[in-house]
Design a protein that fits this description.
CATH superfamily: Alpha/Beta hydrolase fold, catalytic domain
Shape: globular
Number of domains: 1
Structural class: alpha/beta
Strand order of the largest sheet: 1-2-4-3-5-6-7-8
Radius of gyration: 19 Å
CATH class: Alpha Beta
Order of helices and strands: HEEEHHEHEHEHHHHHHHEHEHH
CATH topology: Rossmann fold
CATH architecture: 3-Layer(aba) Sandwich
Length: 305
């Protein structure tokens, strides 16, 4: 009996490794690096740069890549900004860091884009990327922030079951390879729908985004580690927010259930001395796609301020 169980487990492990490896190879062939690289302390930062004008750095959220920012938003800005979209460390085609903290990510991006001559940019962060943008501001450098549906404050309760299951090394070792190997495309599509809800997913977005890259084992492990440590980091950052005197534009949908307005941007706007909060009635978590005009207006205000 024991031998049979061991054989079954070994077979499952072998099939899981084979299938995950095959899916990773297919993902990287279908969605190769679209931009260029700079190296910081031996780690590569993947970026795309387009346009001329004031520097604008775009930082994507969890489970994503710079492709979220280059789907349509970047090209609407490149006529008047030099837009630099980056893959956060460990996601897309950027190398993972040993230190997954917000501050380590912010410094990695900051030092990477500095090699391109970007020293005092406007920084836009969406969702988790907004927390990275806030860490960057606390470390110094941006001339202004635009925070879109940004995670910024400690929240009550717990994360969903996926993050709870992967909150420790044993869970990650067991669950991440299985998810990488066997999560079906239908589940990915429904997850994208849920992130956009109640707004529709733009036509062609799911095919362009390259979600298969996110399902790679190393990428999944990095993402869950980053998200599972986020709340504790925001606890330490919150008391420092009043020290941020730079212009900050907050854009948040009233129907965002992923990063709720009432828990994050609304109280944050009361802590920041130079913040403007734009609430988009009925909008979900992705207004940089569903309500682009309002987000672009916030960027332009930040540039003028």
């Amino acid at each position: 009996m024991v031998a049979s169980v061991l054989i079954a487990l070994a077979t499952l492990a072998g099939v899981t490794h084979w299938r995950a490896s095959a899916r990773e190879s297919a993902a990287e062939a279908a969605f190769p690096a679209s931009g260029d690289f700079v190296t910081v302390d031996g780690k590569r930062l993947h970026y795309e740069m387009k346009g001329e004008g004031p520097d604008l750095v775009l930082i994507h959220g969890a489970s994503g890549s710079l492709r979220d920012m280059t789907f349509s938003l970047r090209d609407r800005l490149a006529d008047r900004y030099r837009v630099i979209a980056v893959d956060r460390p460990g996601l897309g085609h950027s190398d993972a860091l040993d230190d997954t903290s917000l501050m380590a990510q912010a410094r990695f991006i900051k030092e990477g884009v500095a090699q391109l001559g970007v020293t005092e940019p406007i920084v836009l962060g969406q969702s988790y990327g907004g927390a990275v943008a806030l860490a960057w501001a606390l470390d110094g450098g941006p001339r202004a922030l635009v925070l879109v549906s940004s995670a910024s404050m400690p929240w009550p309760g717990k994360l969903d079951i996926w993050y709870r299951a992967t909150s420790n090394p044993v869970g990650r070792a067991l669950v991440v390879p299985l998810a990488s190997a066997f999560v079906p495309d239908s589940y990915v599509r429904s997850a994208i729908d849920a992130v956009f809800a109640p707004d529709p997913v733009p036509e062609g977005y799911d095919n362009f985004l390259g979600t298969a890259l996110t399902l790679r084992r190393e990428t999944l492990a990095t993402n869950v580690t980053q998200v599972n440590t986020l709340r504790a980091e925001l606890v330490t950052m919150e008391p420092r927010y009043p020290s941020l005197t730079l212009p900050v534009e907050l854009v948040h949908g009233s129907a965002d259930t992923i990063v709720p307005l009432q828990i994050h941007s609304q109280p944050l706007s009361q802590l920041l001395p130079n913040a403007v909060l734009t609430v988009i009635p009925g909008a979900g978590h992705m207004p940089h796609h569903s309500h682009q005009d309002q987000v672009i207006a916030a960027i332009d205000r930040a540039a003028l301020r």
